[in-house]
Write a structure and sequence with these properties.
Blueprint lengths: L3 E5 L3 H12 L4 E5 L6 H10 L2 H4 L5 E4 L11 E4 L15 H15 L7 E4 L4 H12 L6 E3 L2 H16 L6 E2 L2 E2 L7 E2 L5 E2 L2 E2 L6 H12 L1 H9 L6 H15 L4 E10 L5 E12 L2 E5 L6 H48 L13
Parallel strand pairs: 1-2, 1-4, 2-3, 4-5, 5-6
Antiparallel strand pairs: 7-10, 8-9, 10-11, 12-13, 13-14
Helix pairs in contact: 1-9, 4-5, 5-10, 6-7, 6-9
Bound molecules: nicotinamide-adenine-dinucleotide (NAD).
């Protein structure tokens, strides 16, 4: 059967990722959402008309408000929301994008209950929480895209520094998607050689700092909008790993339940991706200073999630409680069983 990937909020990142994925000939593509009527349909038609030239067979369609075509998707990519402008932090996006993402997930879950969700919208790790809580999906099917992009940026700067092929660089980044991300030189190699043997530590620190600020560097250059070519490629990479059941290890924002000493939080870690989404979280040994940096990054995510919960206020606490009931009912329906009160469903 043909696979289907839906891109919800097909703006710069979503539409570019959709086109790149379509060219791989792996799945039919649905673009949905957008604040301007006809935008998704127009982009989809434009992409479809490129198919004879690119010689792929992916069917591409687009809709603004008609979500029916999302039904039965294998993957749903969520990149709807507002992008950063100069001087705006990812956290400034918190409340606006929370409401956008929550509303969209509520519409999609009833018709695409078996999909793997890939979240792109910022602030990334916090939006993953919104999707996990709103969908009631197991953690294996809610993943955030950030680490693939952050490692690609780290790899780009290392390749440029050493004047070697980007294919030689295998970069390793942990932690939340933000200024506290933790690029790990000890696990970063160039043709199998630890990068620490090739670049002096002070210069490596500068490269790490540039990686941490990789998003802002582009925002400041563009003036309007934020990066989307590399983010779109990162989304495509994750989709491809899932569609081909590659068992590929990629850094993703995943819901930790004790791994790396963190519980109940989305943080970037190496994840094995297969057809069902996250198949395994790979834990690596960390030196005390690396662990400290990782936990600091996790704490930044926790503060953001707590801020979001505070902003949610009483209404949201109420809806979270109701959401829990709804989630249990939905999951029980899928399992054909009765909801079990008190069982933390996200621990599946
Ligand atoms: N995780 C990452 O590494 C990463 C990288 C790049 C961008 N981002 C984030 O991804 C998001 C999208 O970035 P972009 O550059 O594609 O932005 P964009 O403005 O080009 O696209 C956003 C799209 O969302 C749509 N949208 C807004 N509100 C909507 C709603 N209520 N319902 C349906 N659609 C709606 C808009 O019409 C637009 O098409 C931003 O939050 C950005 O910060 C994350």
């Amino acid at each position: 059967m043909r696979k289907k990937v839906s891109f919800v909020g097909a703006g710069n990142v979503g539409a570019t990722a959709a086109l790149r994925l379509a060219e791989l000939d792996l799945a039919d593509i649905v673009l949905v959402g957008g604040v301007h009527e006809g935008m998704s349909a127009g982009k989809a038609l434009d992409m479809a008309e490129a198919a004879p030239l690119e010689k792929h067979h992916s069917r591409i369609s687009g809709y603004t408000n008609d979500f029916d075509e999302v039904a039965g998707s294998d993957i749903v990519v969520i990149s709807a929301g507002v992008a950063r402008r100069p001087g705006m932090s990812r956290d400034d996006l918190l409340t606006t994008n929370r409401d956008v993402v929550r509303g969209l997930v509520e519409r999609i879950v009833p018709i695409a209950g078996d999909a793997v969700f890939i979240i792109v919208t910022n602030p990334l790790d916090a939006m993953c929480h919104v999707v996990l809580e709103t969908s009631g999906f197991p953690r294996t099917r809610v993943l955030g895209m950030a680490g693939v992009l952050d490692s690609a940026r780290f790899a780009t700067f290392i390749a440029q520094e050493l004047n070697v092929s980007v294919e030689n660089v295998s970069a390793f980044v942990l932690g939340g998607h933000g200024d506290t991300m933790v690029p790990l030189p000890r696990y970063t190699c160039v043709a199998g050689i630890p990068v620490t043997q090739l670049i002096p530590s002070q210069r490596l620190e500068e490269i790490i700092e540039r990686t941490r600020n990789g998003g802002s560097e582009i925002v400041n250059l563009l003036k309007v909008g934020s990066a989307y070519y590399a983010p779109a490629c990162a989304v495509k990479e994750m989709c491809e790993a899932i569609l081909k059941d590659k068992k590929k290890i990629l850094p993703c924002s995943a819901y930790l339940q004790g791994e790396y000493g963190v519980d109940g939080l989305f943080v970037g870690v190496p994840v094995k991706l297969g057809s069902k989404g996250m198949e395994e979280i790979i834990e690596v040994d960390l030196l005390p200073q690396e662990r400290e940096a990782f936990l600091r990054s996790a704490q930044a995510v926790r503060s953001l999630v707590e801020a979001m919960r505070r902003l949610n206020g009483k209404d949201s606490l109420k809806s979270q409680a109701t959401g829990q009931d709804n989630r249990q009912a939905r999951q029980a329906k899928r399992r054909g069983s009765t909801p079990r009160p008190g069982v933390p469903l996200t621990r599946e």
